[in-house]
Amino acid sequence: MKKRQNVMIKGTKDGLVLQLNDQCSYDEVKKELEDKLTAHYREQEDTPLIVVKIQAGNRYLSAQQVEELKELVRQKRNLVVEEVYSNVMTKETAKKLVEESDVYSVASIVRSGQVLEVPGDLLLVGDVNPGGRVKAAGNIFIMGVLKGIAHAGCEGNKEAVIAASVMTPTQLRIADCLNRAPDSYDPTGNEMECAYIDETDQIVIDRVQVLKHLRPNITRFKGGR
User: Fold this and answer.
1) Strands 103-107 and 115-118
2) How far apart are CA 141 and CA 162, in angstroms?
3) Which of 6, 11, 173, 191 has CB 3.0 to 4.6 Å from 32, enough for a Cys bridge?
C-alpha cells in the first residue's frame, strides 16, 4: 500500500504551493517538509527567488508553528514565503470578523473634542460638529451634518465609503488616504453625498446614488430590482 504524502509540492506560474496533510501530526508534517525541501531545493547562489504559499487545510497552526514552517522554507536561499493560510480560525479572529461586519447605530451629536469609533460600519443619526471625529473599520453613514473629521476603513479597507446628508467636513480619511474639504462644497445642496477612493487612489465626492454601481456589495439586502 502506497504511503500517503503529508506534503504535496505543486508548481504554479506564480511559484510553489505546499499543501500540508491536516490528518497527521504536526511533527510528521514538519519532518517531511524539511526532507523534501532538502532533497529538491538545495541552496544555490545564482538561482532566482521562488515565491512559496503554504496551505494548511483544516489544521490550526499556532503563531509559533507558522514561524517554524516559514523558517524551514527560508533556510533554502531561493525560497520566499508569501503566505501561510488555514481554513481554521481562532475564536478571537472569528469574533473580530463578526464585529467588522456589524452595523453600529448611534443617535447622538459628536461634539468638539469627542471621538466616536466602532469596529464595523457606523450609522450615526446626528451631526458631527467641528472638532468632532468619527472612525470606523467599515463604512460611515451620517444622517446629519458632517462638519468635523471622518475616517472610514481605518484598519486599511480602501473599499470603505463615507456618506452624509450634508457634507462639509474638516477632513476626510479612507484607509490611509486623506483629503481636506475642497472649497467647492455646496452646503445648501439637497442631495446626500458620499466620498470614496477612485481608481487613481484619490478621495472623490459624488452623489450617494453612485454607490450602487461603485460598491455593489455595500448592502446585504438581496431583494428588489
Assistant:
1) unpaired
2) 6
3) 6
The residue written with cell numbers 476626510 in the block is 172
Report all structural domains of the chain as residue ranges with CATH numbers, in order of start. 7-88 (3.30.160), 94-214 (2.160.20.70)
135 forms beta bridges with 117, 151
**Separation of alpha carbons 78 and 155, rounded Å:** 33
pLDDT digit string (tens) for the chain, length 225 residues: 456 788 888 888 888 899 999 888 989 989 998 888 888 766 555 667 888 999 988 888 888 988 999 998 888 768 888 888 887 766 676 666 666 668 899 999 999 999 999 999 999 999 999 999 999 999 999 999 999 999 999 999 999 999 999 999 999 999 999 986 554 455 545 678 999 999 999 999 999 888 888 888 776 544 444
pTM, two decimals, is 0.58
Q: What are phi and psi of 138, to 5 degrees?
A: -110, -135
Check: CB of residue 195 under 8 Å from CB of residue 203.
yes
Strands of the sheet with 177-180, listed across from one edge? 115-118, 133-136, 149-152, 171-174, 177-180
